[in-house]
Amino acid sequence: MLTNNELRRYSRQIRLQEVGIEGQEKLKNAKVLIIGAGGLGCPVLQYLAAAGIGTLGIVDNDLVDISNLQRQILFTTDDIEQPKVIVAKEKLLKMNPLLKVNAHFERLNKKNIFKIFEKYEIIVDCSDNFPTRYLINDACVITNKPLVYGAIERFEGQITVFNYKNGPTLRCLSPEQPGAFDVPTCAEVGVIGLIPGIIGAFQANEVIKIILEIGEILSGKILIFDALTYNLNLICLEKQKTSNITELTEYNDYCLSNEDEIKQITYNELIEKINKKDKITIIDVRYPEDLTPLTFKTIEIPIYNIQNSLNLIPKDSDVIFICDHSSKSIMAINYLQKKHSYKNLINLKDGLSIINI
Question: Which domains does the chain have, with CATH numbers?
Answer without folding.
Answer: 4-243 (3.40.50.720), 259-354 (3.40.250.10)
